[in-house]
Amino acid sequence: MKLYFYRGVRPNFGDELNWWMWPKIFGNVFDESQESLFLGIGSILFSSHPQAPRKIVFGSGYGGYTALPVIDDKWDIRFVRGRMTAKALGIDPSRGVGDSAILLRSVVNYTGQVKRYKFSYMPHWESAEIGLWKDACQVAGINYIDPCAEVDFVLDEILASEVVITEAMHGAIVSDALRVPWIAAQPIHSQHRAKWEDWASALDLKIKWQSIQPSSLLEAVIAKLGQRGSLSSKLQYHGKPLNAIRHDAFVIRTAQQLQKVAAVEPQLSSDSAIRNSHETMLLEVEKLKADYPELVASA
Question: Quick one: average pLDDT of 108-118?
């Protein structure tokens, strides 16, 4: 069974959680076999998956980046990220249980961590690639969490923070699951916003968005053009010299905005909501093991 997840130009925390977490839950059972695909964490319900393999959906979401997949008897949907995904797929809303990164509660010791940072900020990995967020955080006196760093490091940085301000959705999902209060920085690129609402719907959570402007000229230009245009794509990979223009002005403005956002009251889903979601997922883990003996292995 092949563990399927998205990998962009650089590895990023949310997607890399798949290879980090699933072997801790199911053991060393994943290989490169194309007979079955295991779709876990991420907006990976695409229209482009091959038809032949069985596709086991275990907490994935539909992000609107492609057309909807055509659901047939090759799809085994156990649960999805939220009610918006369930509605898009035409399945029972009760299967919108939550993002499966919530299962980190079973494999991470999240109590008693020493807090080293009052506030941390994690940008979306694409923002980290083209922006000046590390510089802005340094000016603001806020710890910077690189969304492309190793999973163990990012988890430790989240747990060491009193509050996580995050543009990266899995910065919020993981913080929430591990009971670290968080503040949602509205993604600069609008196509990344709906999936947050999808996850939140499973926890009866209303996101209190905070707006932070682009941290560099390059980031501002790409945001204005729209991320998926051909010109913006070229700029993303060849426009780094733009960041030397008005560097200080962008960094100082962004640092000031980060400080203002840090004064906002952070959020958490209710203890009962996160507990119910987690317990439902654990039941689904046992059901899946019963239905697929190849998913039963010693860790």
Answer: 95
CATH class of the region 117-270: alpha beta
Residues in CB range of 57: below 8 A, 6 or more apart:
39, 45, 75, 76, 77, 78, 79, 80
State CA 81 to chain mean position distance: 11
Distance CA 201, CA 145 (A): 26
Q: Which amino acid is at 89?
A: L
Contact indicator for 33, 54 with CB cutoff of 8 Å: no
CA distances 56 to 68, 204, 289, Å, are 16, 25, 12
Identify the bridge partners of residue 286 per DSSP, sorted by sequence position.
none
Task: Return d(Cα 245, Cα 204) in angstroms, integer.
Answer: 43
Which tens digits make up the pLDDT trace of 158-205?
999 999 999 999 999 999 999 999 999 999 888 889 999 999 999 999
DSSP 174-237: HHHHTT--EEEBPPSSGGGTHHHHHHHHHTT-----B----SSHHHHHHHHH-TTSHHHHHHHH
Closest C-alpha among 184, 182, 216 to residue 197: 184
pTM: 0.92
User: Measuring CA to CA, how many Å separate 35 from each of 50, 51, 74?
Assistant: 10, 11, 11
State which amino acid sits at residue 124. H
What's the full length of the chain, in residues? 299
Phi and psi, residue 144, nearest 5° = -100, 130
Pairwise CA distance, residues 211 & 186, whole Å: 5
What single letter denotes the amino acid at residue 108?
V
